[in-house]
Design goal:
heterodimer, A: 2 domains, 12 strands, 17% strand, B: alpha/beta, 33% helix, 29% strand, globular
């Protein structure tokens, strides 16, 4: 016989009440775990997305930097156009390690998304694009046969969704152009997976944008030169330079207000759960006034009674912590789906990242919740005078 | 000479009820020696339960002096009274007061745990067998009859290895047959093991079968 088993049996006595209280704690813990998992997952996905762009700076046509930042992450460039001459000019800078021009165009395809319609993204690139992204490997096929070939390389998902293999023909809606698939990239976990790549010149020709680019990605030899490099290009007309670190900061800023709101909800949920636990245990203490008096009569000390009630509270919260962690794990897919729908920009990859140490922290946090909310009911029970407790409960 | 279990001198207990003082026990002088089987009788409100509460160190005294097992408990606070109770005084209540979520055996184990003499399971089962409940070891209180519950309560008190037993109306909720059975258990414990037993009761039949009867009226001892 030990305090733990008595406490457990006491909780079993009022199953529904105990289950509801545990449920309250579980919901609070699940909300907290999901939010913390989101915080970590989002930042990691975003950082990984940005790292996988391969360049530290993106030169685009002048426009709203926020719009440019999100559009660029979604597909490699803001949909404003700059002259290719600028690329040729910058290209000569000796500080540059690698540089790649891009032309992005989106085409409405009524057959996308099971007939609901959607935009397909096409990107004109040169071989320098893969130099910046050494992780882009071919799953099958190879590079374009020439700079002006009517050929396409498909991102992993784009190929999978449309069920295309090397050698298949794809049709670009509206423009009425047929392209031959010559390669399919392996999965990269970035937005590139959903893109159809064309030779830059072909793209300029079929989208009727001769000598136009949407962006130029730049990787410098020395990362510390970024400031100087940006300054030198500052006076260049019609362009703006966005550093990837800035983009990351901008996007994190965009979602920070949503995070503050969500964290407030989590704090409130935990506060309500703590009050719920305190209320339940206090009620059960009052109901068991006589029993507590009897325990004292048969030799239970203040410490014994305190420990018993405290253990009950901690048990409720520990069960809630375990259940909440399981709920968060099981529900992370749903949470991820909802977040992807409501967020202004969601990077690809796992948005809600629940790691074992987060679950351990949540469980530990739930126990702390029990320790704190159990103090008052345990103290009330321990302070009961035996004769009064026995007679009051009669 | 037998050791004194209870020694009370001018023992008084006054309750405040609103502005009025209620004298529940009034100047009682009392000595109970080890090995006695005593019944405390009297009408309702005569102070039986209050006297038992004070002897059982569940309640403080207002004035006078009270020694339990040679220790002066008159001025003791609850934090010290628990040490006098623990493992020395076994309580039996009218409504059995078993812990409802625990089985018969677990009720004994809990008492034994609180008393600080965690007995082996086998020893506690033997205790239940001794009072005829060997077949009810793992039953919850709700699965037991009134008489069985009271016998579990007695076994629970014995699990603490007390110096004396205090029973407040132990047969109050029982029929004649079960009352006699409980009385027989008490008699056996007193005669065979020399356990001191103090019983507060209305039951004339129970009172007549104890070795000594103390009559109370309006908080005073009328005869003993």
């Amino acid at each position: 016989m030990n305090v733990m088993s008595v406490a457990y049996k006491n909780l079993k006595r009022k199953r529904i009440r105990s289950a509801l209280t545990i449920g309250g704690v579980a919901v609070a813990v699940a909300v907290l775990v999901s939010l913390m998992g989101f915080d970590k997952g989002y930042q990691e996905s975003l950082t990984s997305n940005i790292d996988k762009m391969g360049y530290q700076l993106l030169i685009t046509a002048k426009g709203c930097p926020y719009e440019a930042a999100t559009l660029m992450l979604k597909g490699g460039g803001g949909l404003r156009y700059m002259e290719q001459d600028i690329y040729k000019k910058i290209q000569r800078d000796s500080r540059i390690d690698k540089i790649t021009p891009q032309l992005v165009s989106t085409v409405y395809d009524p057959d996308r998304q099971q007939g609901q319609g959607g935009f397909a993204m096409y990107m004109g690139i040169t071989e320098s694009y893969t130099e910046l992204k050494p992780w882009s490997k071919f799953k099958s096929g190879s590079w374009f046969s020439s700079e002006t070939a009517d050929e396409a390389i498909m991102g992993y998902e784009a190929a999978e969704v449309e069920q295309r293999l090397v050698g298949d023909k794809i049709f670009v809606p509206n423009i009425n152009k047929v392209l031959t698939v010559v390669g399919i990239f392996e999965r990269t976990g970035t937005q590139d997976d959903g893109v159809v790549f064309l030779p830059l010149k072909t793209a300029q020709q079929i989208f009727s944008l001769p000598n136009k680019l949407t962006g130029v990605g730049v990787k410098l030899k020395n990362i510390h030169e970024i400031g100087n490099f940006e300054e030198d290009l500052y006076n260049e007309p019609g362009i703006q330079i966005i550093s990837m670190a800035q983009v990351r900061g901008t996007i994190l800023n965009l979602i920070s207000s949503a995070k503050v709101l969500a964290n407030s909800v989590a704090v409130i949920a935990i506060f309500i759960a703590a009050i719920g636990v305190l209320n339940t245990i206090l009620m059960s203490v009052f109901e068991r006034t006589r029993e507590i008096g009897v325990m004292k009569a048969i030799g239970a000390s203040r410490t014994d009674v305190f420990r018993l009630i405290w253990t009950e509270t901690i048990l409720v919260c520990a069960f809630g912590g375990i259940l909440g962690s399981v709920l968060a794990l099981l529900g992370s897919g749903v949470v991820e789906y909802i977040l992807k729908t409501i967020l202004p920009y969601a990077p690809s990859g796992q948005l809600v990242l629940i790691e074992p140490n987060l679950l351990f922290a949540a469980f530990f946090g739930a126990i702390v919740l029990g320790i704190i909310s159990g103090i008052y009911p345990a103290w009330r029970a321990a302070s009961m005078r035996p004769v009064e407790a026995i007679r009051t409960g009669e | 000479m037998n050791e004194l279990v209870v020694k009370a001198e001018k023992l008084t207990k006054v309750y405040k009820l609103f502005a009025e003082d209620i004298v529940a026990v009034n100047n009682v002088d009392l000595e109970i020696s080890s090995g006695e089987f005593v019944s405390v009788m009297g009408p309702s409100g005569s102070g039986k339960t209050t006297l038992l509460d004070m002897i059982g160190c569940l309640d403080g005294i207002t004035s006078g002096r009270l020694e339990i097992l040679g220790e002066d408990v008159s001025m003791m606070k609850e934090s010290r009274l628990v040490n006098v109770r623990r493992g020395k005084i076994g309580f039996i209540f009218q409504d059995f007061s078993l812990i409802l979520s625990l089985t018969a055996l677990e009720n004994l184990q809990l008492a034994s745990y609180f008393a600080g003499n965690s007995h082996r399971r086998q020893k506690l089962i033997a205790l239940l067998e001794k009072i005829g409940l060997g077949h009810r070891v793992n039953h919850l209180p709700k699965q037991l009859s009134g008489g069985e519950k009271q016998r579990v309560a007695i076994a629970r008190a014995l699990a603490m290895e007390p110096k004396f037993l205090l029973a407040d109306e132990p047969t109050g909720h029982l029929d004649t047959e079960n009352s006699q059975e409980i009385l027989n258990v008490f008699k056996r414990l007193n005669q065979e093991e020399g356990l001191t037993i103090i019983v507060a009761t209305h039951d004339q039949k129970l009172g007549s079968q104890t070795k000594r009867t103390i009559y109370l009226r309006d908080g005073k001892i009328v005869s003993q």
